[in-house]
Amino acid sequence: MRNFNEWFFRKASAMILFGSCLLPIVAFSQIIPAPTIQCVTTDENSGDVTINWTNPPLNPCGPFVSYVLLGATSSSGPFLTIDTIFISAQTTTIHAGANATILDWYYFMTMVQNCPGATQTFSDTIQEEPLITPDLDFVTVTDTGVYIKWFPSPSTQTAGYIIYYDLGGGLATEADTVFGRLTDDYIDINANPNAARVVYTIAAFDGCLNKTLFNENEHNTIFLGGSIQQCTQQVTLDWNQYINWSGVSGYRIETSLDGAPFTVAQTLPDGSTQYLYSLVGVTGDTLCFRITAVHQNGTTTSISNVRCLPLNLVRSTTFNYLRNVSVNQAGGVDLEWYIDTSADINSYYVLRSLNGNTFTSIDTLPVVNPAFLNTYTDAQANTSVNSFHYEVASFDDCNFQLNSTKGQTIFLEGKNNGILNELEWNAFSLENATVLDYTIYRVENGVLVPLQTFTPSTLTFEDDISTAISEDGAFCYVIEASFNLSIPGFVNENLTSRSNQLCLYQKPVIYVPNAFVPGGKNNVFKPTLLNPNISEYEFLIFDRWGKQLFTTDVLAAGWDGTNNGEEMPMGGYSYYIKVVSKGGEAQEKTGMVVLVR
Description:
By secondary structure, the protein is mainly beta. It has 6 domains: 3-127, Sandwich (Immunoglobulin-like); 135-220, Immunoglobulins (Immunoglobulin-like), CATH 2.60.40.10; 224-310, Immunoglobulins (Immunoglobulin-like, Sandwich), CATH 2.60.40; 320-401, Immunoglobulins (Immunoglobulin-like, Sandwich), CATH 2.60.40; 412-505, Immunoglobulin-like (Sandwich), CATH 2.60.40.10; 509-595, Sandwich (Immunoglobulin-like), CATH 2.60.40.10. It is 2% helix and 52% strand. The chain contains 1 helix and 52 strands. Residues 1-28 have low confidence and may be disordered.
């Protein structure tokens, strides 16, 4: 019974309210329902109070008479009639002159019906005060969702609560609405606390759907992440801290092996967000973890999501041997390596270096089923310019890296020195390998023709080409190293590695006849070029007075002794020939030729 009821019935124990009169109570055979006050709102300018209510159904015992609004400036009374409303459909009234900006008011209502002997009832007492935003108690992860607990708002106008969540973007989203001022918990079954932390806050609303601002002291679930570090046999756990408690006494690391009940493995102080859990001595199929934050009161807790990890430890690579590095015919580099196929390898990194010290990854190769012998072609290496060093790094599922042995390609370089092509190359290098010899080949019509084989210490060669003729003036070479790869208890085999192909161009040699006979055997005058590796060509004919009679830049074209279709007379004519080799070296030749008829 409300305070007014106690006061009212103490003053008039045998009377009921009817209009402004008290009538004798005859019997209590029926009950007259009371209105429900939805909200009271103060006008901050006038101090007047607006009261809103919902009307109850009439008792069929008799006709409606009035609604009576009673109020007092103290919760203990005395309560006086503020207003009597004679319209049954009316749901609002104004308490004018309440001066509620200074005074506190308490209100309740009753309904009067002409029902002799009926029992009078009264609404809850509602205080004229602003809605009060409730405080959260805690949030915790459960098997069915996120459980949210709060302290009910002390505001008597409270009709229910709005639950808000935030996934981290700073924008509160309404999760649900719950009714009842004394309701103090809710389970968010739509939340996914296994994907990320979820932040919650709350607001209150009254019967008129006025609502408070949401509480700025948000609470969040604890999101636990973790992964097994197979190489170190540890589990790395990480989580976010619980926020906006008055204090956290600590965090408990709790574990469950193969479905057993959770037990406390370690307790960490406030502020902890990481932990390394040792797997040494742990045997089983699945190990689950959760984090429990403990309030400083020692009883309130918040439990994280459960993180379960399979205990399938990764087998790391035990060997990684480079078998060969060799330049292919296209100018790329072919790599071969041996790897431990029993290891849980997930990728290879192909590493390249110019100096053998600083290696850069040039490609990543995913691995599904490791092969004992692996191959890769580096098509981007410019082997005509440099020698390259290589190694291959393997990575297992623990991200453990094992670099292979190293190898270096052969780079062949040289220059033309008249009748000699001077060649030199770097020593072939491969860990666990011994060079047996080098063989130099000249490329003739696409075929490798061996010229000479050298000891491993020989790294130069001079090719005498004084008697050799090349149709295009190019002489191309390749070096091949023969070597023995020996890894005790593993492999012993003889292999070869090729260098890049080097082409040296001889200077064009110009031969010019001293006479020609149009219509005869030597009927066209033109020069003959040996080693014609040219990029530019110019051939001109002049008469004795310097008039130009003929010009061409086509090697096969010659002068037939005419000028504009007119045969030129017998006699001497001068010529000028210019050729520029592909290397940019220019040659010029002038002289006289005799035209004979």
